[in-house]
Amino acid sequence: MELISLFNYKKKSNVAKAKNGDKEAFIELINENRLNIYRVAKGILKNEYDIEDAIQNTVIKAFEKISTLKNDDFFRTWIIRILINECNDILRKNKRVVSLQDSIEKEKYDDKYKNMDLINAVKSLNEDLRNITVLYYFEDMSTVEIAKTLEIPEGTVRSRLSRAREKLRERMKEV
């Protein structure tokens, strides 16, 4: 119990330090959340370059805006929300622009997950269903945490999860 309290105190103090301009504390917060950030970006975006861009933009925005974080306990939720917005911006931009370079890269790009039918099925879901699925199954966030992160009612999260599961079942039957 004391170890958990010590960890929470350290985490809170890093957020407070970062809010006061301590760059090292901010870097430590990013390092603590690095894997979560990558997994969420990977679950939403397909291209490794887009994932890197989304993460980079997220870190920059979080650093610039950390003083606006109201509750230090919600740092993880806050940064994931910034990341989701960045990923969605990249997806919107990519829909508008399809370049020859992208199609060449897709032919060369060898993703070790490309043969995983479930990952492909998740990525084929529409944006709302995909985001919730990634947060729930890949990030192990509860429906309450997802609702707070996405700023939507918890009932909406549950209904979208249900629709996503049904669509995934259908797509997996096809495979």
UniProtKB/TrEMBL annotation:
Positions of the RNA polymerase sigma-70 region domain: 29-96
Keywords of the record: Sigma factor, Transcription, Transcription regulation
Residue ranges annotated for the RNA polymerase sigma factor 70 region 4 type domain, each copy included: 117-168
Protein family (similarity comment): Belongs to the sigma-70 factor family. ECF subfamily.
Protein name per Swiss-Prot or TrEMBL: Sigma-70 family RNA polymerase sigma factor
Species annotation: Clostridium hominis
UniProt lineage: Bacteria, Bacillati, Bacillota, Clostridia, Eubacteriales
